[in-house]
Design a protein that fits this description.
7 helices, D-Maltodextrin-Binding Protein, domain 2, five-stranded mixed sheet, alpha/beta, binds magnesium ion, binds phosphoribosyl ATP
Length: 213
C-alpha cells in the first residue's frame, strides 16, 4: 500500500471536511491547530493543512497526491494540470456581483456609462474572464479580503465575492446583482500520482464517492 498525502484547505473547508474524513477513518491523529503535517487514523494517509490558495500548487507539484479545495480557488488558479474527479458538495456558496443598495450600480437596467466600472475582488482572473465574455471592459482592483468595504469607501463600484446566506452583504448595505457561478469544494488529484498510486488512490476516491452518494 502506498503512502498517500492529502492536502486540506485550512478554515471553513477544513471544518466541513473533518466529518467526512472521520467517516472514512482518515480523521487527523494529532493536533491540527498546531501541526501542519498530521498523521491520520489511516496509517497510509498523511494530512497537510495549508492555506486554501496553496492547495492546487501542492497537488500540481506532487507535494500532495490529492487535495480538497474550493472551486473558486481552482478556477482562479486556472490550468488543467489537475484531475478534478469529485464534487464533495460541501462549503457551498456562490460567486456573485454586488453593489451598494440604491446606487446606480445596483440598477438591474445596467451600469451607468462614461467610465470603466471598477470591480474589487479576490478573484481577478475569474472576474476578468467573466466580464470579457460579456464584452464589458472593467477595471479590476485586487483585494485580499473584506471586499464588502470597497464600494462603501469609494474604492470600487461593485464587488465580486462569495455569498452564502447574504447576511454579510445585507449588513453592509449591499445587494447581490448577479451570480457568476455556484461554488462547492472539490477533490483534486495529481496526474502522476493517479498513475503511480492507481490502486490506492482509486480505492480512496471510490470510498469518498460512495460516502456522498
Ligand atoms: O485564510 P485564507 O485567506 O488563505 O483563506 P480564506 O480566509 O478565504 O479561507 P476561508 O476559511 O474563509 O475559506 C474560504 C473557502 O470556503 C472559499 O474558497 C470557498 O470555497 C468556501 N466558502 C464557502 C466561503 C464561503 N462559503 C463564504 N461565505 N468562503 C468565504 N465566505 C465568506 C465571503 O467571502 C463573505 O465574506 O463569507 C462571507 C459571506 O457569507 P454570508 O453567509 O454572510 O453570505
Ligand atoms: Mg482567512
Amino acid at each position: 500500500m502506498s503512502l498517500i498525502t492529502l492536502a486540506l484547505s485550512k478554515g471553513r473547508i477544513l471544518e466541513d471536511s473533518l466529518p467526512l474524513l472521520e467517516r472514512l477513518g482518515m480523521g487527523p491523529a494529532g493536533d491540527i491547530d498546531r501541526l501542519l503535517r498530521v498523521p491520520s487514523q489511516d496509517p497510509n494517509v498523511h494530512l497537510v493543512i495549508i492555506r486554501p490558495a496553496d492547495v492546487p500548487t501542492y497537488v500540481e507539484h506532487g507535494a500532495a497526491d490529492l487535495g480538497i479545495v474550493g472551486k473558486d480557488v481552482l478556477m482562479e488558479h486556472g490550468g488543467s494540470a489537475l484531475y478534478e474527479p469529485l464534487d464533495l458538495d460541501i462549503a457551498c456558496c456562490r460567486l456573485s456581483i454586488a453593489a451598494v443598495k440604491g446606487s446606480p450600480y445596483a440598477d438591474p437596467g445596467g451600469w451607468p456609462g462614461g467610465r470603466r466600472v471598477r470591480v474589487a475582488t479576490k478573484y481577478p482572473e475569474i472576474t476578468r474572464h467573466y466580464f470579457a465574455q460579456r464584452g464589458e471592459q472593467v477595471e479590476i482592483i485586487k483585494l485580499y479580503g473584506s471586499m464588502e468595504l470597497a464600494p462603501l469607501v469609494g474604492l470600487a463600484d461593485v464587488i465580486v465575492d462569495l455569498v452564502d446566506t447574504g447576511n454579510t452583504l445585507r449588513a453592509n448595505g449591499l445587494i447581490e446583482t448577479g451570480i457568476i457561478t455556484r461554488i462547492s469544494s472539490r477533490v483534486v488529484v495529481n496526474k502522476a500520482s493517479m498513475k503511480m498510486k492507481h490502486a490506492a488512490l482509486g480505492d480512496l476516491l471510490a470510498r469518498i464517492g460512495s460516502l456522498r452518494a
